[in-house]
From TrEMBL:
Family stated for the protein in its record: Belongs to the phosphosulfolactate synthase family.
Record-given protein name: Phosphosulfolactate synthase
Cross-referenced InterPro entries: Aldolase_TIM, ComA_synth, ComA_synth_sf
Database matches in Pfam families: ComA (PF02679)
Length: 255
């Protein structure tokens, strides 16, 4: 029974307002229980880092996500490992065999030239939905705001459906300072110049998530969300937490 006035959320097969979880080893039994209750709050599931390669019952896990209409894909670290070892053809076959339809092209660990990533995306978009990632996992490597803008725009133009802004699972690099503080000037420039519906902001903690909800709106795309936090995040999006309590539909100008 709906009787509260809440910010309007996207529903169903969302193309924005995405909640993208990071699965860093959720057991099958726990996953079945979580998805039974909360699958409608999850849109994309990343098998974190390169863990897919050593995950027991990986095919069963992938099929479980797909049964609940959640899009699974492998973390960018596995892509980079395959690129480094010149095994991308084998990786593509591996993903097709598993029935994975999404692929991440990243350079969080390796310094893969932008032009190389653009060329790879142009090829991969024929067989996969591509998610690109911008930013380094090394907090000592800072990109100028102009570089962020250029890379994101070029990666979208190459055929990426979304671009992820690096934040790590700790929220200490990329769009964050090493101490975990959001690089607010960077975020403001990104959403001013690029459609935020095409950006997935890595936001691993409730504090980070609340920043983006308040700054951009309840239907901001958020990534690296812990699987046990999806209900709390949905409550935050709906203005049902103190920090987002006064979030009203008319205030959500962007999303």
């Amino acid at each position: 029974m709906d009787f509260l006035s809440l910010p309007k959320r996207t529903t169903g097969n969302r193309v924005y307002g995405l909640t993208c979880i990071a699965d860093f080893g959720t057991s099958m039994g726990e996953l079945r229980n979580i998805l039974a209750d909360f699958h409608t709050m999850i849109d994309i599931a990343k098998i974190g880092i390169g863990s897919a390669y050593v995950t027991p019952n990986l095919r069963t896990k992938i099929n479980l996500y797909k049964e609940h209409e959640i899009k699974p894909y492998c973390g960018g670290t596995l892509f980079e490992k395959c690129y480094y070892q010149n095994k991308l053809n084998e990786y593509i076959h591996y993903l097709h065999d598993l029935g994975i339809e999404w692929i991440e092209v990243s350079n969080g660990t390796l310094d893969i030239p932008l032009q190389t990533r653009i060329e790879l995306i142009s090829q991969l978009k024929e067989s996969f939905h591509v998610i690109a990632e911008v930013g380094s996992k090394d907090c000592r490597k800072e990109m100028r705001i102009s570089e962020w803008l250029e890379e994101i725009q070029l990666l979208l133009e190459a055929g990426s459906e979304y671009v992820i802004t690096e934040g790590r699972d700790s929220g200490t690099s990329g769009i964050y300072e090493e101490c975990g503080t959001v690089r607010c000037e960077l975020i403001h420039e990104l959403i001013k110049n690029i459609d935020p519906k095409k950006i997935i902001f890595e936001a691993p903690t409730p504090k980070h998530q609340m920043y983006f909800i308040k700054e951009i709106g309840p239907n901001v795309n958020l990534g690296n969300v812990k699987i046990n936090d999806v209900l709390m995040l949905e409550a935050q999006r709906c203005g049902l937490r103190s920090e987002t309590f006064y979030l009203e539909e008319h205030e959500c100008n962007l999303l």
